[in-house]
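ok trying this again, last paste got cut off
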Amino acid sequence: MIDKKRLIKSFGFAFEGVTHALGRDQNLLIHFSAALLVVIAGVIFKVTPFEMGLLGLTILLVIATEMINTAIETMVDLITKEHRQEAKIAKDVSSGMVLITAIGSVMIGLIVFAPHVSALFK
C-alpha cells in the first residue's frame, strides 16, 4: 500500500533539491535558460513532434548531468576540505560528463534546427 504522506514528503524533498540547485548553481540556471530558448525556438520554427521530443530528451540529459555533477561536487567537498588529487579527479570527471552532454546537445540542436533555419533563406 502506498503511504501518501510519505510520497508527498518525498516529492517535497525532490522539489527542494531542484530549487536548491537552481538557486546555487549558476551553470544549472544557464542550462534551464538555454532549455527555455530551445523550446521557444522549437515552437517558432514549428519543429516536428519527433524533433521536439529529441530536443526534450537532450535537455533532460543535460540538466540531469548538471544536477549529478552538483551532487558529486558537494559530496566531495563534504568528505574532504583539503586539496587531494582524487577529489580533483572526481570533480573534473563529473564536470567533463556535463561538458560531453552539453556538446552533444548542441550537435543535436544544430541537426534539428539547421534545416528550419536554412529554409528561411530559400
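PB: full thing came through this time. Helices lie at 4-24, 26-44, 49-79, 85-120.
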